[in-house]
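Appendix B: complex inputs.
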Amino acid sequence: MIIELPDNVRNIITRLNTAGYEAYAVGGCVRDSVLGREPQDWDITTSALPEEVKALFNRTVDTGIKHGTVTVLLGRESYEVTTYRIDGKYSDSRHPDSVSFTRSLVEDLKRRDFTINAMAYGNDGLVDMFDGAGDIEKGVIRCVGNAEARFGEDALRILRAVRFSAQLGFDIERETMAAAAKLAPRLADISAERVHAELNKLLLSDHPERLITLHELGIDRVIMPEINEIAEKGELPRVCSLIGRSPANICLRWALLLAAVRRSRDPKEALRRLKFDNNGTYTICSLVRLTDAPLLGIGEQSMRRLINNAGRDLMELFFMYRMAADPDSDYNAAYELYNGIIERGDCTGIDMLAVNGRDLMELGIPAGKDIGRILSELLDRVLDDPALNTRESLLPIAKEASGL
Ligand code: ATP
Ligand code: MG
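Resulting structure:
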C-alpha cells in the first residue's frame, strides 16, 4: 500500500527521522487515504518529545503541549505533531486522568478507538497492527482491543462508532456493537457539546439514515429521547429514510427529525439541551412550526402571507424542507408562484412597506404600540393587494386606522 503524502507532511516526517526520531502520519488521514478519500487534515505522531519537536522547526505553537501536541506551521498550513502517548485511567468516562509519553508507536496505536483509525504511515510504509486495512476492505467499525474496556474508558467512542458507520457506510462489528449497547448509559457522562458535534456529523454524513443505529443500541434513550419516541410510534424507519434522501443541510435534517415528535415535544427542548446556538434553534424551530402550513395549491395572497410568516430568508430552505418531507408531491408550481412574488418585489414584510414608523409619527400618531399595530394593519392590506403599497394609498389608511 502506497500513500501519496503531501510535501509538507513528508518534509516534517523526514526532518524528524533525520534527527533520529520516528514519525508517521496517523489516524483519520491514513484511514481516508486507504479509502481513497481526500483527508481533511494530516496529523503526525512521533517518538520525539514536544520540546524535541519544537527544537526542529522554526515556527511552532504550543496548542496542546500537556497532551504532547505541538502545531508546526509551514507556509500557510499547520500540522499537529503529537508525541506517542499512553492514556492513563479514565475515571469520568471521558478524560484520561493523565497521559504519559512513550517511545513506542504500538502503544500509541493501541490507545486509538477503532482499527480503521489506528493505522500509521511513514517512510517505512504502512503500520497496521490491528488490520485496519482489512476492516476497511470488509467495511466494518471495530474497536482496538476489548470493546467493553474501550467504551468504558471513553463513552464518546460509542457515538463515534455510529458516526463513522454513517460517514463511511460501514457496519459496526458484532462485539463492538454488543459492547456499545451495554455501555450506552455511560453516554450520560458526555458533555452536550460533544454529543451535539457527533450528532451533527452523523446527520450531515452520506448515510444519515444510519441514525437508526442510535435506537438499536439504546443510545437514543440516553441522549435523544425524541428518537426513541419516534421509534415507539413505529415511524423511525420512515423518518430515517426521509433524512437519508434529503439534501445535506444540517437545519433541514434536524427539522425532519424533530418534526416527527412535534405534537408531543417542543423542538426547542432538544435544541437547548444540546446547546444549539440561537440561529440554529430559530431556523430549525421555524421549519418545524411550518411543517403543516398550507403550501400546495395556495394562491398568491396566501403565498405572500406565508413568506411574511416564515421570513424571506427562510423560504429557500423551507421549500427544500417541505420537498424532503413530502417527496411524492410536486412543488414546482408552488415554487414558481413564490419566485414570481420575489422577482416582482411584492411587499412581503413590514420592512418592505412604502411607509414606516416615522411616517406615521409625522402624521401625528404618537410613538408607542399604536404604531406597530397600524403597520401590521397596513401590511395586512398590502399582502392582499400589493398595488396598495404606495405612500399615497397607505397614509390615508393609516390615518383612518389611528382614529385621528
Ligand atoms: P474526523 O476528523 O473526520 O472526525 P478523525 O479520525 O480524524 O476523524 P479525530 O477526532 O480528528 O478523528 O481524531 C484523530 C484520531 O485520534 C482518530 O483517528 C483516532 O485515532 C484518535 N481518537 C480521536 N478521538 C478518540 C477517542 N475518543 N478515543 C480514542 N482515540 C481517539
Ligand atoms: Mg481529524
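The chain has a mean pLDDT of 96.
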